[in-house]
Design brief:
mainly beta, 0% helix, 3-stranded antiparallel sheet, 4-stranded antiparallel sheet, single chain
């Protein structure tokens, strides 16, 4: 399975599948996930995990404030826009559920490139890394991480 970014800041994630160790691939299909730089792992129990960030483009207004300009849909943008999130698949990528946003720390800057990476540190325990700061020369810039314990509800 390969997850790939498409488009600019608000592009959908697409998924392609190979049954011959990557020699040939089925046509990619659009997922109900958006973001940049998806990272994909398989946990010890077979669950697939995708970490991805949905970047927000800001426009500086005349009064010096910023407004997000990446949402073109009707109504309010989805709640996970402008943050990083995890998505899970328990059926080898057929469906992606438990799309879980994880916001930035309250003490940190609110800007990021929204690139993430994830690894399983022990069965059922993930460590997710992401950056804080701006790609435009902001003085404060660092890599942050957090542990996530994964539990599955009975279905």
């Amino acid at each position: 399975i390969c997850l790939m970014r498409t488009g600019h800041l608000k592009g959908f994630i697409h998924q392609a599948v190979s049954d011959d160790e990557g020699r040939t691939w089925l046509k990619p299909r659009k997922l109900d996930l958006r973001g940049v730089d998806p990272d994909l792992i398989e946990m010890a129990d077979g669950t697939l995990v995708c970490s991805v960030g949905w970047r927000v483009e800001y426009m500086k207004l005349a009064d010096g404030t910023h407004r997000a300009v990446d949402w073109e849909g009707d109504g309010e943008p989805p709640p996970h826009r402008g943050t990083n999130y995890l998505a899970f698949s328990r059926d080898q990528g057929e469906t992606w559920t438990q799309i879980t946003p994880f916001p930035f720390e309250p003490h940190g800057p609110s800007l990021s490139t929204f690139y993430t990476t994830v690894c399983e540190t022990s069965p059922g325990h993930l460590f997710v890394c992401y950056d804080i700061g701006s790609w435009g020369g902001q003085a404060v810039r660092y890599v942050a991480g957090r542990e996530v314990e994964v539990s599955h509800s009975a279905s």
